[in-house]
Amino acid sequence: MTSETLKHFKFTVTAGLLAFMETHRIRSNPRGRQRFRVGEVLRAANDAHLHAYSMHLAGAHLLSLGAFSYSVSPLSTRVKMGRYCSIGPNVRLMGLRHNIESVTSAEILFRGRRGLFVDTFEEFAPGAWKFAENPSPGDTIIGNDVWIGQDALLKQGITIGTGAVVGAAAVVLRDVAPYEIVGGVPAKRIRWRFDERIIAGLLESEWWRYAIPQHPDLPWTDPAAFLPALAEKKAAGRMAPFESDLGPLREILKKTS
Q: Are 131 and 123 in contact (CB under 8 A)?
């Protein structure tokens, strides 16, 4: 590790890490070659795990990205994403919220290291007066099988549920429900992907725990036919969850340094 904060850390890419990524089918370039180089410094969330068959296609990051997911946007390390997600180009998170409940929303009121003026001008050092806390959202959670279109803008700290779709150039200010399709400025519901019965069945089935390439016989393009076929195959003991979690990145770095 080269440096660390409360939320993320930086580390140097080693030949061992690149070999580990290749062995476990973690890619940073869609054409097969790794775009990361030995000696390059990357960032990751403090609690990041690596998952097999994930594609980290933009930014100096290793994201918290589930199996069969990809992102062509350099998302924040505070985004946590499930399996089978598709993140288009130029998807961004909004900046931090300002404290509008105080007399002023100006940044100079913020406390500590996150205070731009406090960090820049020594005469405003912490302790001169009582600072307000800079409101800080939690992690942004993206479920499984989420598709986010190009140029979408997401409020930090929201949850986008499994199966949801966010339209291109949407500005998303609230949580998005599972299998909800949203778009516009601000983003509003356009429709549901499927009817209520199908949505409930897909969520109950937790189909994303399995690897599509291992079960090409299932009718993946027909949700109504898929659910009974999946249930039958499970009952016959012919479905094993695909284990993709390779463990905490911190531990992986120790083993591959």
A: no
Flag whether 149 is in a domain.
yes
Yes or no: say if 54 and 246 are a contact pair by the CB < 8 Å rule: no
Dig out the tokens for 140 from the structure: 């942004």
pLDDT in tens, 24-37: 999 998 887 789 99
113: containing domain? 97-135
Same domain, 160 and 68: yes
Residue 158 lies in a domain: yes
Question: So which residues are the catalytic ones?
Answer: 98
Domain count, the chain: 2
* Nearest Cα to Cα of residue 78 among 43, 27, 54: 43
Mean pLDDT within 91-102: 84
For residues 152 and 89, is the Cβ–Cβ distance under 8 A? no
Residue 198 has pLDDT above 70, yes or no: yes
- In the block, residue with structure tokens 């986010």: 148
Backbone angles phi, psi at 172, to 5 degrees: -100, 115
**Which uninterrupted H or E stretch holds 3?**
strand 3-4
Helix %, strand %, coil % of the chain (to 5): 25, 25, 55
SS (H, E, C) 27-52: ECCCCCCCCCCCCCEEEEECCCEEEC
pLDDT tens-digit map of 137-194: 789 999 999 999 999 999 999 999 999 999 999 999 999 999 999 999 999 999 999 9
* 12 three-state secondary structure: strand
Q: What's the whole-model pTM score?
A: 0.89
User: CA–CA separation, 228 vs 196, rounded Å?
Assistant: 16
